[in-house]
Amino acid sequence: MEVVLFFLGLFYQISGNKIKPGKSRIFWGLDNEYQAIAVVGVNNKSEKNELELRSEKKENIRTAVAAGIRALDAVDVKNISIENFSDAEAVGESSLLTGWKFQEYKSKKDELPIINLFDADDESCKLWKRGTLKGHAQNIARRLADTPANLLTPSIFANQVKELLTPLGVDVKVYDKEWAENQKMGAFLAVAKGSIESPKFLELTYKRKEGDPFVLVGKGVTFDAGGISLKPAAQMDQMRADMSGAACAVGTLYGLAKLETPTNVKVLIPLVENLPSGSAVKPGDVVFARNGKSICVDNTDAEGRLILADALCYSAELKPRWVLDIATLTGAMMVALGDAATGVFTNSNDLYKILESSGSETGDRVWRMPLWKHYTKKLSENAAYDLNNISKGRGGGSCTAAAFLKEFVPEKTNWLHLDIAGVMGPDNTEPYLSKGMSGRPTRTLIDFLERQSS
């Protein structure tokens, strides 16, 4: 059965009633070629709402497309054509995101809809393709993040990245424990000590332009039980997605490669499991990062910042134009922002403005948080070692985590830290994302890098 999802305008020719924005109705038998037509309401607001920090026009289109697809899917319609809604790229994004869900390990999978663009000119087709590629890139991140931890160990993750990105011309280097030891990555290796799974460190290179690279660093804790500082059992299964930063970085690189973006990007991914055992790092242990700084591990559940510290140190070897790390770093970020936006800490006003604009375009917003010396002091005023891995004071957990990372950023380097703990999932409120890990903010990172590559 062929179905067309039409713009709101058609509805006024059918009925005097108005469909509310984000809602839909299905009409049967109106056309000989198309047996069903889904009509959706679109709130045609301005391009950008300064208070909401997003392009409401694009977001309303994504929401309307999602409503139509879900309505048709509910009546078992699987072959869907969609008009361009005056923004084929936004339509393409929403189509791929709405039409996909994680069901990798079901013995009987649900049939997913096949979605195409209806009656489009060449320019709309080009924009539609861009949108679908970006949506697919985010779906890759969603799939990786939702994969059970026993089926996505550090070694399996590395192999999957090779299979995914090598055919696209991305150079994938997989470093082992011995390499990390030679690099003196004591903080990274300390986290891995509690697991029988060997740590891996990935260095991915996508080079389609000369010059110094942009560097992304993705947190790759493939399962986080908290180590000796054990997490509560309730919802611990969600910690399979504690590698969402790594998943977003991989999805971003996939998107850039498929879009053939003329840029030079390096991605660094430290991969570990954080588990309790007789060999695990203990609260109060002191470890040494690659740059020689000593760290007292007061809380083994603050492990993400330890592996990122050594990766940030290593990024100096790459002579980066800037460094951006992305991590499900702190529960405090969920408390601060919920799932509305990614928290951003940065030493560059200019880079933040670009990132904020990208978030507005994609609908996947960011919000700037403070990076003040006030927070550094809560970690660094110690008699016997350089840093604690957690603050001695109360509150501001996301801010002190960012202050910790700042101590390992290459000198005089522009840097952004994205804390995505709040937007990780699985209870997504965006209408075009099903329940499960979100893959956010993959599309924002793609847009962010595209803007600077041009």
UniProtKB/TrEMBL annotation:
GO cellular component: cytoplasm
Key words, A-Z: Aminopeptidase, Hydrolase, Protease, Signal
Enzyme Commission number: 3.4.11.1, 3.4.11.5, 3.4.13.23
SUPFAM superfamilies in UniProt: Macro domain-like, Zn-dependent exopeptidases
Recorded superkingdom: Eukaryota
Signal sequence, renumbered to the chain: 1-16
Coiled coil residues, start to end: none
Ranges where the Cytosol aminopeptidase domain occurs: 299-306
PROSITE patterns linked: CYTOSOL_AP (PS00631)
Entry keyword annotation includes Signal: yes
GO molecular function: manganese ion binding; metalloaminopeptidase activity
Catalytic activity annotation: L-cysteinylglycine + H2O = L-cysteine + glycine; Release of an N-terminal amino acid, Xaa-|-Yaa-, in which Xaa is preferably Leu, but may be other amino acids including Pro although not Arg or Lys, and Yaa may be Pro. Amino acid amides and methyl esters are also readily hydrolyzed, but rates on arylamides are exceedingly low; an S-substituted L-cysteinylglycine + H2O = an S-substituted L-cysteine + glycine; Release of N-terminal proline from a peptide
InterPro entries from the UniProt entry: Leucine_aapep/pepB, Macro_dom-like, Peptidase_M17_C, Peptidase_M17_leu_NH2_pept, Peptidase_M17_N
One GO-annotated biological process of the protein: proteolysis
Family membership: Belongs to the peptidase M17 family.
Function description: Cytosolic metallopeptidase that catalyzes the removal of unsubstituted N-terminal hydrophobic amino acids from various peptides. The presence of Zn(2+) ions is essential for the peptidase activity, and the association with other cofactors can modulate the substrate spectificity of the enzyme. For instance, in the presence of Mn(2+), it displays a specific Cys-Gly hydrolyzing activity of Cys-Gly-S-conjugates. Involved in the metabolism of glutathione and in the degradation of glutathione S-conjugates, which may play a role in the control of the cell redox status.
Protein name: Cytosol aminopeptidase
Organism: Rhynchophorus ferrugineus
